[in-house]
């Protein structure tokens, strides 16, 4: 019995060390409990998050999350520990790679992270610290100063590039204020789902943006549609049930389309 107790004592410090947050955030426990519950979580350098060391604009902090080194991934989540609204976006994968680029609002400096869930149910987490002056989540969207902003609500633009490895890199832009609800006089109003399907209707990726995504979000994805797919379709909605819909031709080895293409407008 004493040998068993000694073994448990020897193992316990190792378990604690493995769970220590490499970014030393006092808010990590809150983030883990809110986003992952009791699911297993590991810090993993194969989940790469690229972001500026210092945010020049707290309303538009560009990040790229890349978990391709993990192999098969089912879901990715982006989050910022110190934001009052923790989750930035969730990406559900079908025929898309675990890769996403976007810009977010930061309320104050701290860790920005990406988590990727593999088929065994384990969440793999990587991230970086970003210094920020603060106030990004509680400032009103600047688009509200434009008298005609509502007339353009839900318009989509996009472009596709063919990568050397055969993936389709797709960049989408939606005209939307993405209000957090934390600025006086502006209730929460944001795109909460974007589905990307092939021209036969098969789902490639489902993105669930959150309130902290920057206004007029620009989203970059890497898709792996079936051979012969000529276009993708984007269909989404916002928190007020406005629809967004459009189509985008894919790029081919003969050359990508020149310039941005307007893919559609609100219904």
Automatic annotation (TrEMBL):
Could you name the domain of life of the organism this protein comes from? Bacteria
Question: What is this organism's lineage?
Answer: Bacteria, Pseudomonadati, Pseudomonadota, Alphaproteobacteria, Geminicoccales
The organism of origin for this protein: Benzoatithermus flavus
UniProt xrefs under InterPro entries: Fuse-rel_SoxYZ, Ig-like_fold, Ig_E-set, SoxY, SoxY_sf
What is the designated name of this protein? Quinoprotein dehydrogenase-associated SoxYZ-like carrier
Q: Which Gene3D superfamilies match?
A: Immunoglobulins, SoxY domain
Where does the signal peptide begin and end?
A: none
In this chain the Ig-like SoxY domain maps to 33-137
Q: Which residues form a coiled coil?
A: none
Stretches the record annotates as Disordered: 229-267
Q: Where is the composition biased (Basic and acidic residues)?
A: 258-267
